[in-house]
Amino acid sequence: MPVPEALANDINSKYIKKPNINKSASSASEYRNWTLLLTPDTPKVILSHKRRTESKVTVYPNLTTEDTSSAKQPKIVVHWLERSRAQRIIWLLEELGLKYELKIYRRTENRVAPPELRGIHPLGKSPVITVDDLVLAESGFIVEYLTTRWGRLRPDPSSPAAMQYQYLLHYVEGTLMPPLVIGEVMQQIKKSPQIPFFIKPIANMIVNGVYNNYLNSAYEGNFRFLETLLDGKEYFAGEFSGADVMLGFPLVEAAKGRVKGFDKQMFPNLFAWMDRVSSREGYKQAEARTEKHEQLLDK
Protein backbone atom coordinates (compact mmCIF):
# COMPACT_ATOMS: atom_id res chain seq x y z
CA MET A 1 0.00 0.00 0.00
CA PRO A 2 1.55 3.39 -0.98
CA VAL A 3 2.53 5.63 1.91
CA PRO A 4 0.97 9.13 1.89
CA GLU A 5 3.57 11.73 0.99
CA ALA A 6 2.74 13.80 4.08
CA LEU A 7 3.49 10.83 6.35
CA ALA A 8 6.81 10.12 4.65
CA ASN A 9 7.77 13.81 4.86
CA ASP A 10 6.89 13.84 8.57
CA ILE A 11 9.27 10.95 9.23
CA ASN A 12 11.93 12.58 7.06
CA SER A 13 11.77 15.72 9.17
CA LYS A 14 12.37 13.90 12.48
CA TYR A 15 16.11 13.86 12.03
CA ILE A 16 17.54 16.34 9.58
CA LYS A 17 21.29 16.60 9.63
CA LYS A 18 23.67 16.63 6.70
CA PRO A 19 26.29 13.94 7.11
CA ASN A 20 29.90 14.90 7.45
CA ILE A 21 31.35 12.18 5.25
CA ASN A 22 34.94 12.48 4.17
CA LYS A 23 34.74 10.99 0.69
CA SER A 24 38.45 11.24 0.03
CA ALA A 25 41.47 11.41 2.29
CA SER A 26 44.57 13.38 1.46
CA SER A 27 46.63 10.31 2.21
CA ALA A 28 46.09 6.75 3.27
CA SER A 29 47.89 7.45 6.54
CA GLU A 30 44.94 9.53 7.78
CA TYR A 31 43.06 6.32 8.60
CA ARG A 32 43.88 4.63 11.88
CA ASN A 33 41.47 1.69 11.65
CA TRP A 34 40.63 -0.75 8.91
CA THR A 35 37.68 0.48 6.88
CA LEU A 36 35.88 -0.91 3.87
CA LEU A 37 34.19 1.47 1.48
CA LEU A 38 31.91 0.01 -1.19
CA THR A 39 30.55 2.32 -3.88
CA PRO A 40 27.84 1.37 -6.36
CA ASP A 41 29.77 2.14 -9.52
CA THR A 42 33.35 1.22 -8.64
CA PRO A 43 33.20 -0.67 -5.33
CA LYS A 44 36.50 -0.42 -3.52
CA VAL A 45 37.81 -1.93 -0.35
CA ILE A 46 40.12 0.47 1.44
CA LEU A 47 42.26 -1.32 4.02
CA SER A 48 44.38 0.75 6.37
CA HIS A 49 46.45 -0.69 9.22
CA LYS A 50 46.30 0.74 12.73
CA ARG A 51 49.85 1.93 12.28
CA ARG A 52 50.30 4.73 9.78
CA THR A 53 51.17 2.69 6.73
CA GLU A 54 50.27 2.78 3.08
CA SER A 55 46.83 1.37 2.29
CA LYS A 56 46.00 -1.20 -0.35
CA VAL A 57 43.00 -0.64 -2.57
CA THR A 58 41.28 -3.60 -4.21
CA VAL A 59 38.35 -3.34 -6.61
CA TYR A 60 35.54 -5.86 -6.07
CA PRO A 61 32.40 -6.57 -8.14
CA ASN A 62 29.30 -4.49 -7.54
CA LEU A 63 27.69 -5.64 -4.29
CA THR A 64 24.44 -3.66 -4.41
CA THR A 65 21.06 -5.27 -4.94
CA GLU A 66 18.76 -4.62 -7.86
CA ASP A 67 16.47 -1.59 -7.59
CA THR A 68 12.92 -2.94 -7.71
CA SER A 69 11.17 0.43 -7.46
CA SER A 70 9.82 2.29 -10.47
CA ALA A 71 10.91 5.72 -9.24
CA LYS A 72 14.53 6.74 -8.79
CA GLN A 73 15.75 5.49 -5.43
CA PRO A 74 17.58 7.82 -3.03
CA LYS A 75 21.17 7.05 -2.19
CA ILE A 76 21.39 4.82 0.89
CA VAL A 77 24.67 4.28 2.74
CA VAL A 78 24.87 1.84 5.65
CA HIS A 79 27.65 2.53 8.15
CA TRP A 80 28.08 -0.97 9.47
CA LEU A 81 30.17 -1.94 12.49
CA GLU A 82 31.49 -5.50 12.38
CA ARG A 83 29.63 -7.99 14.59
CA SER A 84 26.93 -5.54 15.57
CA ARG A 85 23.20 -4.95 15.48
CA ALA A 86 23.65 -3.20 12.14
CA GLN A 87 23.27 -6.69 10.63
CA ARG A 88 19.50 -6.32 10.89
CA ILE A 89 19.56 -3.19 8.69
CA ILE A 90 21.39 -5.07 5.92
CA TRP A 91 18.78 -7.82 6.19
CA LEU A 92 15.90 -5.33 5.97
CA LEU A 93 17.36 -3.62 2.89
CA GLU A 94 17.77 -6.99 1.19
CA GLU A 95 14.15 -7.86 2.01
CA LEU A 96 12.99 -4.50 0.60
CA GLY A 97 15.09 -5.01 -2.53
CA LEU A 98 16.76 -1.60 -2.18
CA LYS A 99 20.16 -0.60 -3.49
CA TYR A 100 22.63 0.49 -0.85
CA GLU A 101 26.29 1.18 -0.29
CA LEU A 102 28.05 -0.51 2.60
CA LYS A 103 30.81 1.06 4.62
CA ILE A 104 32.26 -1.32 7.19
CA TYR A 105 34.10 -0.28 10.34
CA ARG A 106 36.45 -2.44 12.35
CA ARG A 107 36.16 -2.48 16.13
CA THR A 108 39.07 -1.20 18.16
CA GLU A 109 41.17 -3.41 20.45
CA ASN A 110 38.71 -2.55 23.24
CA ARG A 111 35.86 -3.90 21.06
CA VAL A 112 34.19 -0.51 20.68
CA ALA A 113 33.36 1.48 17.57
CA PRO A 114 36.21 3.46 15.96
CA PRO A 115 36.19 7.27 16.27
CA GLU A 116 35.49 7.65 12.53
CA LEU A 117 31.83 6.85 13.18
CA ARG A 118 31.47 10.13 15.08
CA GLY A 119 31.98 11.87 11.76
CA ILE A 120 28.65 10.39 10.68
CA HIS A 121 26.68 10.68 13.92
CA PRO A 122 27.78 12.46 17.14
CA LEU A 123 27.30 9.33 19.28
CA GLY A 124 29.60 7.30 17.04
CA LYS A 125 27.46 4.17 17.26
CA SER A 126 26.12 1.66 14.75
CA PRO A 127 23.76 1.12 13.05
CA VAL A 128 23.51 4.46 11.35
CA ILE A 129 22.49 5.08 7.75
CA THR A 130 22.32 8.03 5.42
CA VAL A 131 19.45 8.43 2.96
CA ASP A 132 20.53 11.21 0.62
CA ASP A 133 21.29 14.00 3.14
CA LEU A 134 19.38 12.49 6.09
CA VAL A 135 21.26 10.77 8.92
CA LEU A 136 19.23 8.10 10.73
CA ALA A 137 20.35 6.31 13.89
CA GLU A 138 18.82 3.70 16.23
CA SER A 139 17.67 0.35 14.85
CA GLY A 140 13.97 0.75 15.63
CA PHE A 141 13.76 4.20 14.10
CA ILE A 142 15.64 3.09 10.97
CA VAL A 143 13.30 0.10 10.55
CA GLU A 144 10.26 2.32 11.07
CA TYR A 145 11.53 4.88 8.57
CA LEU A 146 12.39 2.40 5.82
CA THR A 147 9.22 0.31 6.12
CA THR A 148 7.04 3.42 6.24
CA ARG A 149 8.74 5.25 3.39
CA TRP A 150 8.61 2.22 1.09
CA GLY A 151 5.25 1.00 2.37
CA ARG A 152 6.31 -2.61 2.82
CA LEU A 153 7.05 -5.14 5.61
CA ARG A 154 4.70 -3.43 8.05
CA PRO A 155 1.04 -4.16 8.84
CA ASP A 156 -1.72 -1.92 7.54
CA PRO A 157 -1.96 0.93 10.10
CA SER A 158 -5.68 0.21 10.54
CA SER A 159 -5.17 -3.50 11.28
CA PRO A 160 -5.01 -5.04 14.78
CA ALA A 161 -1.45 -6.22 14.04
CA ALA A 162 -0.21 -2.63 13.65
CA MET A 163 -0.20 -2.01 17.41
CA GLN A 164 1.75 -5.22 18.01
CA TYR A 165 4.24 -4.23 15.33
CA GLN A 166 4.86 -0.77 16.80
CA TYR A 167 5.20 -2.19 20.30
CA LEU A 168 7.79 -4.76 19.24
CA LEU A 169 9.95 -2.15 17.49
CA HIS A 170 10.35 -0.43 20.87
CA TYR A 171 10.36 -3.59 23.00
CA VAL A 172 13.46 -5.10 21.37
CA GLU A 173 15.89 -2.34 22.31
CA GLY A 174 14.05 -1.11 25.39
CA THR A 175 13.45 -4.44 27.18
CA LEU A 176 15.04 -7.42 25.44
CA MET A 177 18.50 -6.12 24.55
CA PRO A 178 19.61 -4.58 27.91
CA PRO A 179 19.95 -7.91 29.80
CA LEU A 180 21.63 -9.50 26.77
CA VAL A 181 24.17 -6.67 26.63
CA ILE A 182 24.77 -6.88 30.38
CA GLY A 183 25.30 -10.64 30.04
CA GLU A 184 27.90 -10.05 27.33
CA VAL A 185 29.70 -7.57 29.59
CA MET A 186 29.64 -10.05 32.47
CA GLN A 187 31.22 -12.73 30.26
CA GLN A 188 33.95 -10.32 29.21
CA ILE A 189 34.70 -9.60 32.86
CA LYS A 190 35.04 -13.31 33.62
CA LYS A 191 37.38 -13.82 30.67
CA SER A 192 39.39 -10.64 31.08
CA PRO A 193 43.16 -11.26 31.34
CA GLN A 194 43.53 -7.84 32.97
CA ILE A 195 42.01 -9.01 36.26
CA PRO A 196 44.73 -10.31 38.62
CA PHE A 197 44.33 -13.98 39.56
CA PHE A 198 43.81 -13.16 43.25
CA ILE A 199 40.90 -10.83 42.33
CA LYS A 200 39.21 -13.27 39.95
CA PRO A 201 37.25 -15.13 42.69
CA ILE A 202 35.70 -11.83 43.76
CA ALA A 203 34.94 -10.84 40.14
CA ASN A 204 33.35 -14.23 39.48
CA MET A 205 31.26 -13.93 42.63
CA ILE A 206 29.94 -10.55 41.47
CA VAL A 207 29.20 -11.88 37.97
CA ASN A 208 27.38 -14.93 39.36
CA GLY A 209 25.35 -12.65 41.62
CA VAL A 210 24.24 -10.55 38.65
CA TYR A 211 23.11 -13.69 36.84
CA ASN A 212 21.31 -15.20 39.83
CA ASN A 213 19.61 -12.02 40.98
CA TYR A 214 18.72 -10.44 37.64
CA LEU A 215 19.82 -11.90 34.32
CA ASN A 216 18.49 -15.46 34.55
CA SER A 217 14.95 -14.34 35.43
CA ALA A 218 15.08 -11.56 32.81
CA TYR A 219 16.08 -14.03 30.11
CA GLU A 220 13.40 -16.54 31.01
CA GLY A 221 10.68 -13.90 31.28
CA ASN A 222 11.47 -12.37 27.91
CA PHE A 223 11.79 -15.65 26.05
CA ARG A 224 8.56 -17.05 27.51
CA PHE A 225 6.77 -13.83 26.58
CA LEU A 226 8.01 -14.06 22.96
CA GLU A 227 7.20 -17.77 22.84
CA THR A 228 3.54 -17.04 23.63
CA LEU A 229 3.39 -14.29 20.99
CA LEU A 230 4.07 -16.93 18.34
CA ASP A 231 1.28 -19.28 19.43
CA GLY A 232 -0.65 -20.04 16.25
CA LYS A 233 1.45 -17.61 14.17
CA GLU A 234 4.45 -17.90 11.89
CA TYR A 235 5.66 -14.33 12.47
CA PHE A 236 5.36 -11.86 15.33
CA ALA A 237 2.97 -9.44 13.62
CA GLY A 238 1.10 -12.10 11.64
CA GLU A 239 2.97 -11.72 8.35
CA PHE A 240 6.71 -11.20 8.05
CA SER A 241 7.58 -7.60 8.97
CA GLY A 242 10.20 -5.26 10.32
CA ALA A 243 9.39 -6.58 13.80
CA ASP A 244 10.84 -9.95 12.82
CA VAL A 245 13.94 -8.20 11.50
CA MET A 246 14.37 -6.36 14.81
CA LEU A 247 14.02 -9.58 16.82
CA GLY A 248 16.35 -11.59 14.60
CA PHE A 249 19.64 -10.34 16.01
CA PRO A 250 19.01 -10.92 19.76
CA LEU A 251 17.30 -14.28 19.34
CA VAL A 252 19.81 -15.72 16.88
CA GLU A 253 22.69 -14.56 19.10
CA ALA A 254 21.04 -16.06 22.18
CA ALA A 255 20.58 -19.37 20.34
CA LYS A 256 24.32 -19.58 19.70
CA GLY A 257 24.80 -20.63 23.31
CA ARG A 258 25.17 -17.15 24.75
CA VAL A 259 22.17 -17.70 27.04
CA LYS A 260 22.05 -20.83 29.15
CA GLY A 261 18.72 -22.67 28.96
CA PHE A 262 17.60 -21.10 25.67
CA ASP A 263 17.00 -24.23 23.63
CA LYS A 264 14.53 -25.81 21.21
CA GLN A 265 12.94 -28.03 23.82
CA MET A 266 12.01 -25.12 26.07
CA PHE A 267 11.03 -22.67 23.32
CA PRO A 268 9.86 -24.60 20.23
CA ASN A 269 7.95 -21.66 18.72
CA LEU A 270 10.99 -19.40 18.80
CA PHE A 271 13.30 -21.99 17.28
CA ALA A 272 10.76 -22.79 14.55
CA TRP A 273 10.53 -19.05 13.84
CA MET A 274 14.33 -18.82 13.58
CA ASP A 275 14.30 -21.68 11.07
CA ARG A 276 11.71 -19.81 8.98
CA VAL A 277 13.45 -16.44 8.93
CA SER A 278 16.90 -17.92 8.29
CA SER A 279 15.53 -19.67 5.21
CA ARG A 280 14.38 -16.39 3.65
CA GLU A 281 16.40 -15.25 0.66
CA GLY A 282 16.94 -11.76 2.09
CA TYR A 283 18.36 -13.20 5.31
CA LYS A 284 20.72 -15.51 3.44
CA GLN A 285 21.93 -12.70 1.18
CA ALA A 286 22.62 -10.44 4.15
CA GLU A 287 24.45 -13.22 6.00
CA ALA A 288 26.59 -14.09 2.98
CA ARG A 289 27.53 -10.49 2.35
CA THR A 290 28.54 -9.60 5.88
CA GLU A 291 30.35 -12.89 6.51
CA LYS A 292 32.50 -12.20 3.47
CA HIS A 293 33.46 -8.77 4.79
CA GLU A 294 34.15 -10.02 8.32
CA GLN A 295 36.47 -12.69 6.93
CA LEU A 296 38.26 -9.98 4.99
CA LEU A 297 38.67 -7.90 8.16
CA ASP A 298 40.05 -10.89 10.07
CA LYS A 299 42.90 -11.39 7.62
UniProtKB/TrEMBL annotation:
InterPro entries: Glutathione-S-Trfase_C-like, Glutathione-S-Trfase_C_sf, Glutathione_S-Trfase, Glutathione_S-Trfase_N, GST_C, Thioredoxin-like_sf. Residues 73-154 form the GST N-terminal domain. Residues 158-299 form the GST C-terminal domain. Its EC number is 2.5.1.18. It catalyses: RX + glutathione = an S-substituted glutathione + a halide anion + H(+). One of its GO terms (cellular component) is cytoplasm. It is an enzyme of class 2 (transferase). It comes from the Eukaryota. Keywords: Transferase. PROSITE patterns: GST_CTER (PS50405), GST_NTER (PS50404). One of its GO terms (molecular function) is glutathione peroxidase activity. Belongs to the GST superfamily. This is glutathione transferase. It comes from Terfezia boudieri ATCC MYA-4762. The lineage of its organism: Eukaryota, Fungi, Dikarya, Ascomycota, Pezizomycotina.
